[in-house]
Write a structure and sequence with these properties.
This protein has about 600 residues and is an alpha/beta fold. Helix content is about 40%, strand content about 10%. The chain has a 6-stranded mixed beta sheet. A 4-stranded mixed beta sheet has the order 2-1-3-4, with helices on one face. It has a 4-stranded parallel beta sheet with strand order 8-7-6-9, sandwiched between helices. About 55% of the residues are buried.
Length: about 600
């Protein structure tokens, strides 16, 4: 640590007024100036915030975008979602590393650059893609672009000097309905909406039968009413923009093209529940959207839509701040998200109490996702009955799908709930699909025999991802890739998830290397079923509970992909894995199944 690093940290600490709850933001902004976070610098930040070094180091070690060891001055991270791999990302990663003379995960000897992988970047419709310093994204990678990138890195050209075309991100809207068409030009102004009684706004949402679009589908009005009825003078509204479910990119487009509608929905929610403070939790991979979103907020403050007497309503003092994440899928779970907002590791809380009872800083807090708040903006203008008239009897409104994979026209497709999978496949140009992963890895793998099923809460619910796999894809390898994702993203809080997800990976890796070697067995498949049962019923949050969903579905519908990697007469138990499994089973005290990780829950 040198004087320049101390000065950088001092500037950041002053900007955040030495607020320990802003620790994640302080570490993020400091690292942007110092490139990495050495222990003496972390100790200095701890002293300034009145925290222990262990607390600060624990946070710095939790998020994958923080670096506590020297890293390249320019960090290149290839998106490692399955759809990027299907487009050749691994070959492009190897090509770049060969040109630079480094291995994945390594920094060159001069400290100029490092190359590695990261989870899905939310750019599946224009991949392969990569992140640069968590501030820039490069889309549509190919061999020529990778070669040019290698030359620029070797020449130490800063990202700001790279071709602007590389950073182009398209919205990719293929079919727009209510939300993606945007608010009508003649829609009532927000100020007029806010003058209505808070309970009237809440009643409109109840009449609409709007259910949260984050995965679990909890009724929005019930959540809001619980927050409004909770004791305490201060309340918060949080927009969960941590769109970390692989294959999902709808919120990216809503934030880019319809930010005002999202902020309108948050403001309506604040008025309905009596909240004074709002946050947008923006995933770290979308850091490049921050300047644009801050500009929209500044304009809204100048228009009187935020701040003191927001919307011209006396006594309604509501404003919104943006918190940028630092790379942790588990923060999509609402209580983990709140922990991160408060400057801590993003580990899910024990519930009850639920966030609507005691959320951010102990205050009653509503957490909904981007699409939910965008829907609220429309419902507030057109009424609950209008929204309830779209969709099905149990699933009202529309749903935006992030379509990627083996299709001719990837992008965003918005349909009324109740639309069949077959209709979406026809529209996106996927006549040879053998399966669709609906809702991301924690969702459902639907085989071709079930394409007549509908996307709806009463049939196939979805958080938004729609990944298409044609007959050339090995669904075993798809499930294996998803298993690695869950093992990597486990927060490590509970043993069943921490150990169980790793055991699933090891067992699948054994089967993957068994073909032709005689090492696989029916025992391995039986053990995978046992691990599925353990994880689904014994983990602390939805991550572990949903980690085996791809495994369960592919075993059920594409079992041949597993059987061909095993021999019924071969039995090769792994004693060390058996011991770890028994240990995980002994510490499991819960029997209730978890829910989809990116959920919106309340009592």
């Amino acid at each position: 640590m040198n004087d320049a690093a101390l000065a950088a940290a001092g500037t950041v600490l002053a900007r955040w007024r030495q607020d320990p709850h802003a620790l994640v933001q302080i570490l993020r902004e400091t690292q942007a100036l110092t490139h990495w976070l050495p222990r003496p610098l972390l100790a200095h930040i701890a002293r300034a915030l009145g925290l222990t070094s262990a607390q600060v180091e624990g946070v710095a070690g939790f998020y994958r975008f923080f670096h506590t060891r020297p890293s390249g001055r320019v960090r290149v991270l290839f998106s490692d979602n399955i759809t990027d791999r299907m487009l050749g990302s691994e070959a492009l990663l190897a090509r770049l590393c060969a040109r630079l003379g480094v291995a994945p995960g390594e920094t060159d000897a001069a400290g100029r650059f490092s190359v590695d992988r990261c989870s899905c970047t939310g750019l599946c419709d224009q991949g392969p893609a990569l992140l640069v310093d968590h501030h820039h994204v490069v889309t549509r990678l190919d061999a020529s672009r990778v070669d040019a990138l290698a030359d620029l890195l070797l020449a130490e050209a800063p990202p700001d000097a790279w071709p602007a075309e590389w950073f182009r991100v398209d919205d990719g809207v293929q079919r727009a309905d209510v939300l993606l068409q945007g608010l009508a030009a003649d829609a009532p102004a927000l100020a007029g909406v806010l003058r209505r009684a808070p309970q009237a706004l809440l009643d409109d949402v109840a009449q609409s039968r709007l259910r949260g679009r984050g995965g679990a589908g909890f009724p929005a009005a019930r959540k809001w009413q619980a927050c409004r009825d909770a004791p305490g003078p201060l309340r918060c509204v949080v927009c969960n923009a941590d769109e970390g479910e692989p294959g999902t990119f709808k919120d990216r487009v809503l934030l880019s093209a319809h930010a005002d509608a999202v902020f309108d929905g948050m403001t309506v929610a604040a008025r309905a529940v009596g909240a004074q403070q709002g946050f947008v939790y923006l995933r770290g991979e979308y850091r490049y959207l921050l300047p644009q979103l801050e500009a929209v907020l500044a304009r809204r403050r100048a228009q009187g839509l935020l701040g003191r007497d927001a919307g011209g309503v006396a006594g309604f003092d509501f404003d919104i701040a943006i918190h940028v994440g630092a790379g942790a899928y588990v923060c999509g779970e609402e209580s983990a998200l709140i922990e991160s907002l408060e400057g801590r590791r993003g580990t899910p809380r024990i519930r009850p109490p639920f966030p609507v009872q005691a959320g951010y800083l102990g205050r009653p807090t509503v957490v909904n996702n981007v699409e939910t708040f965008c829907a609220v903006a429309h419902i507030a203008r057109r009424g609950g009955a209008w929204w309830a008239g779209i969709g099905t009897a149990e699933s009202s409104g529309t749903k935006i799908h992030s379509v990627s994979g083996d299709c001719a026209r990837p992008g965003l497709y918005e349909y009324p709930l109740g639309t069949t999978i077959a209709r979406i496949l026809e529209d996106c140009g996927a006549p040879r699909a053998q399966a669709v992963q609906v809702g991301g890895p924690s969702g459902a793998c639907v085989p071709a025999s079930e394409f007549g099923r509908a996307i709806a809460f009463e049939d196939v619910p979805s958080a938004g991802a729609f990944m298409v796999f044609d007959g050339s894809r090995d669904l075993f390898e798809v499930a294996r890739h998803f298993a690695r994702f869950f093992a990597h993203e486990s927060c490590g809080l509970c043993t069943p998830c921490r150990v169980g997800t790793e055991l699933v990976v090891r067992r699948l890796d054994k089967l993957a290397h068994a073909r032709g070697a005689g090492r696989g067995s029916a025992f391995d498949i039986e053990r995978l079923h046992e691990l599925d049962t353990l994880l689904h019923g014994g983990t602390h949050c939805g991550l572990g509970a949903s980690a085996c969903n791809p495994l369960r579905d592919t075993l059920a519908h594409f079992g041949r992909a597993y059987v061909q990697r095993s021999t019924a007469d071969h039995f090769e138990p792994d004693v060390d894995l058996d011991a770890e499994l028994s240990s995980a089973r002994r510490v499991t005290g819960r029997t209730d199944a978890g829910a989809h990780l990116h959920t919106e829950q309340t009592p």
